[in-house]
C-alpha cells in the first residue's frame, strides 16, 4: 500500500491545475492518468480558445495542455503515473489503480476527482453501425493521429463541439454534407456557425436522424424534419450518402468513482446528468473528497482549469497547509469562475450550479443570516 | 485515409510498424493506437456482437467498450487506446470473446 497526501484522478486541464495548485502549497501529490499522455481533451483541440487571458484565450487548446504539463513536471513533489486507470475508490478511502497490467493500492489523505466527461449517444435504428462515431472520437482520430474518419460526414448536433469538429473536418479535407440539430436554434456560437455556412455547409435546425443505412458499415443516413412539438413530419425524409455520422449531442460526467465512494449525487440536466453536490470551494458531501472540471458539471476547459486550481487550494487547506494568501487566491478563482459564467452564455450553467451547490446555510439550517 | 496536408497541424509520425490483422500483414506507425492504424488501413469493423451485428469504435478514448478486439490471443482489448506494437496479432472479435 502506497501512502500519499493527495491523489488527483485524471490529468486533463482540471487535474493538471489541481496538482499544480496543491504542489505550490507544498502538498505531496500523486497524479494518476489513464492515458499514456497528460492533457485530457486538450490534446485534440487545435482551435484557439475563447475565454479571458487568465485562462489563455486565443492560445490553441493543445498548446495550453503542453504549458500545463511542463509546469506540473517542474514540481518535485508531484509524482505522475501515466497509463494508470483508477479502478476503485472505496469507502475506507483505499484506491485501486491498474498500471501496465499491475495492480496498485493507494491510501490518500485527500482526493480530487477530475475524470472529465464522456459523449452521449443518440437512439435511432442502426446507430451501432461502424461509421457512426462520437464527435470527440473523430476529433481524436484526425487531430491526434492524422487519420481521416471517412469521406462524407453528417454532423448531428449544432452545439460548439459539432460546429468546431465540422470545421476541423473540412480543414482535414473531409466533406461535411450537412449539420442537423433537433432544436429550432443553433446551440453553438453564431460566429462559428456563420463561418461554416459561408463554406457551403447547410445547418438544418428542427431536423434529426431517422435511421442509418448500411450492411457492414454506414452507407447512408436518412434525416427528417420535426414540427413544433418535436415530432417528425412524415414525407420530409431526405437521404444523404455519407460514410460517417458524427454524434455531437452533448457530454455526461464520468462519475462512476463518485458513485462508488458514496458522494451525494443529484440529477442536474443543465450540467449534463448526475453530478456530485459540492460546496463553492468544491468539496463533495464527503470530507476531503473534492471535484473539479467536467465531472462536476460539463462546461469548458477554461472553467475546468480554474476549478482545478480552486480544488487544489481547498485540498491543501484540508490537509492543514497554511497558505498566506489563501483568502485572496480563493476570491480570485471564484471571481474568475463568476466572470466565465456571466451573461446569457453562462445562464444554463448558473441554473445548474444553483441546484448542485450545498450552501453553508443549507448544510447548517438556522445558522447564518 | 491519412491526412497529408493540414493548415494547422503537422503530424510527426513515428517509425513504421507491421502487425497482422486476421492473418494479413498491415502497416501502421509507432505512437498510434491499433484502432487508428486499422482505420487508416480502411478497416471499420472491429468486432461482431453476440447478435452478429458489426461494431466499430465510438468514443476513441476508452470510455464505451465498443472497440473490443482479440489482440495476441487476449479478448476484449480496447483497441482505441491500446498502443500499436511491432508484430501484434490482431483479430476481429466474435461475441463476448473467450476468457482464458
Ligand atoms: C471538440 C471540443 C471543443 C472544445 N472547445 C473548447 C474551447 O474552445 N474552450 C473551452 O474552454 N473548452 C472547450 N472544450 C471543453 C473542454 O475540452 C473540456 O471542458 C475540458 O477538457 C474538461 O477538462 P477536465 O480536466 O474536466 O476533463 P478532461 O479533459 O476530459 O480530462 C479528464 C482526464 O481524466 C482521465 N481519466 C478518466 N477516468 C480516469 C480513471 N478512472 N483513472 C485515471 N484517469 C482517468 C482521462 O483520461 C482524461 O485525461 C471543448 C471540448 C471539445 C470536445
Ligand atoms: S471506442 Fe469507446 S472504448 Fe474504445
Description:
By secondary structure, chain A is of the alpha/beta class. Chain A has 2 domains: 2-118 and 251-363, FAD/NAD(P)-binding domain (3-Layer(bba) Sandwich); 121-247, FAD/NAD(P)-binding domain. Helix content of chain A is 30%, strand content 25%. Chain A has 10 helices and 19 strands. Chain A has helices at 13-24, 61-74, 135-143, 160-171, 190-198, 256-261, 301-318, 326-340, 347-356, 360-363, and strands at 2-9, 29-32, 78-81, 84-89, 95-99, 102-113, 117-119, 132-134, 152-156, 175-181, 203-205, 207-213, 220-225, 238-240, 244-247, 251-253, 265-268, 273-276, 289-291. In chain A, strands 1, 2, 3, 4, 5, 6 and 19 form a 7-stranded mixed beta sheet that branches. Chain A is globular and about 65 Å long. Chain B has one domain (16-99): Roll (Ubiquitin-like (UB roll)), CATH 3.10.20. The interface between A and B is medium-sized, with 35 and 35 residues. The structure holds flavin-adenine dinucleotide and FE2/S2 (inorganic) cluster (FES).
* Most strands sheet of chain A: 7 strands, mixed
Strand content of chain B: 25-35%
CATH-level-2 architecture of the largest domain in chain A: 3-Layer(bba) Sandwich
Count of structural domains of chain B: 1
Q: The biggest beta sheet of chain B, please?
A: 5 strands, mixed
> In oligomeric terms, what are we looking at?
heterodimer
According to CATH, what is the class of chain B?
Answer: Alpha Beta
Residue stretches of chain A low in confidence (pLDDT < 50, at least 5 long) are 363-369
Biggest interface, which chains?
A: A-B, 35 and 35 residues
Topology order of chain B in helix (H) and strand (E) letters: EEHEEEEEE
* Tally of contiguous helical segments of chain A: 10
- The overall strand count of chain B is 8
Query: Which sequence of SSEs, written as H and E, runs from N to C of chain A?
Result: EHEHEEEEEEHEHEHEEEEEEHEEEHHHH
The structural class of chain A is alpha/beta
Q: Ends of chain A: how far apart?
A: 46 Å
**Secondary structure category of chain B:** mainly beta
Average pLDDT metric of chain A: 93
Determine the fraction of residues in helical runs of chain B and give it as a percent range: under 10%
Q: What Rg of chain B is obtained from the alpha carbons, in whole angstroms? A: 14 Å
CATH class of the largest domain in chain A: Alpha Beta
Alpha-carbon distance between the two ends of chain B: 36 Å
Amino acid at each position: 500500500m502506497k501512502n500519499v497526501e493527495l491523489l488527483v484522478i485524471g490529468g486533463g486541464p482540471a487535474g493538471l491545475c489541481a496538482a499544480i495548485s496543491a504542489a505550490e502549497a507544498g502538498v505531496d501529490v500523486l497524479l494518476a492518468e489513464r492515458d499514456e499522455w497528460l492533457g485530457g481533451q486538450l490534446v485534440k483541440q487545435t482551435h484557439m480558445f475563447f475565454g479571458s487571458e487568465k485562462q489563455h484565450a486565443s492560445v490553441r487548446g493543445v498548446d495550453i495542455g503542453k504549458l500545463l504539463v511542463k509546469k506540473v513536471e517542474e514540481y518535485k513533489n508531484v509524482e505522475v503515473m501515466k497509463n494508470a486507470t483508477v479502478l476503485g475508490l472505496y469507502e475506507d478511502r483505499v484506491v485501486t489503480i491498474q498500471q501496465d497490467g499491475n495492480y496498485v493500492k493507494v491510501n490518500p489523505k485527500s482526493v480530487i476527482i477530475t475524470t472529465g466527461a464522456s459523449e452521449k449517444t443518440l437512439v435511432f435504428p442502426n446507430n451501432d453501425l461502424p461509421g457512426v462515431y462520437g464527435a470527440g472520437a473523430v476529433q481524436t482520430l484526425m487531430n491526434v493521429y492524422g487519420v481521416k474518419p471517412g469521406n462524407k460526414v453528417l454532423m448531428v448536433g449544432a452545439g460548439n463541439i459539432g460546429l468546431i469538429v465540422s470545421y476541423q473536418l473540412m480543414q482535414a479535407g473531409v466533406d461535411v454534407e450537412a449539420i442537423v440539430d433537433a432544436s429550432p436554434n443553433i446551440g453553438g456560437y453564431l460566429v462559428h456557425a456563420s463561418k461554416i455556412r459561408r463554406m457551403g455547409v447547410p445547418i438544418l435546425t428542427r431536423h434529426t436522424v431517422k435511421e442509418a443505412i448500411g450492411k457492414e458499415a454506414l452507407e447512408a443516413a436518412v434525416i427528417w424534419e420535426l414540427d413544433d412539438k418535436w415530432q417528425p413530419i412524415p414525407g420530409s425524409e431526405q437521404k444523404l450518402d455519407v460514410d460517417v455520422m458524427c454524434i455531437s449531442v452533448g457530454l455526461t460526467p464520468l462519475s462512476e468513482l463518485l458513485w462508488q465512494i458514496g458522494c451525494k449525487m443529484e440529477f442536474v440536466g443543465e450540467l449534463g446528468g448526475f453530478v456530485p453536490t459540492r460546496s463553492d470551494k468544491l468539496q463533495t458531501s464527503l470530507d476531503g473528497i473534492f471535484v473539479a472540471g467536467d465531472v462536476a458539471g460539463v462546461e469548458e476547459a477554461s472553467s475546468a482549469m480554474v476549478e482545478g486550481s480552486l480544488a487544489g487550494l481547498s485540498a491543501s487547506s484540508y490537509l492543514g497547509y497554511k497558505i498566506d494568501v489563501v483568502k485572496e487566491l480563493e476570491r480570485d478563482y471564484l471571481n474568475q469562475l463568476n466572470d466565465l459564467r456571466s451573461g446569457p452564455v453562462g445562464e444554463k450553467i448558473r441554473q445548474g450550479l444553483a441546484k448542485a451547490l450545498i450552501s453553508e446555510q443549507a448544510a447548517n439550517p438556522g445558522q447564518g443570516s | 485515409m491519412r491526412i497529408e496536408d493540414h493548415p494547422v497541424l503537422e503530424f510527426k509520425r513515428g517509425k513504421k510498424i507491421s502487425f497482422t490483422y486476421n492473418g494479413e500483414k498491415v502497416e501502421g506507425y509507432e505512437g498510434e493506437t491499433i484502432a487508428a492504424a486499422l482505420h487508416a488501413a480502411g478497416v471499420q469493423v472491429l468486432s461482431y456482437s453476440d447478435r452478429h451485428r458489426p461494431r466499430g469504435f465510438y468514443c476513441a478514448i476508452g470510455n464505451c467498450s465498443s472497440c473490443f478486439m482479440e489482440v495476441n490471443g487476449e479478448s476484449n482489448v480496447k483497441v482505441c487506446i491500446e498502443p500499436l506494437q511491432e508484430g501484434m496479432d490482431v483479430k476481429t472479435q466474435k461475441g463476448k470473446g473467450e476468457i482464458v
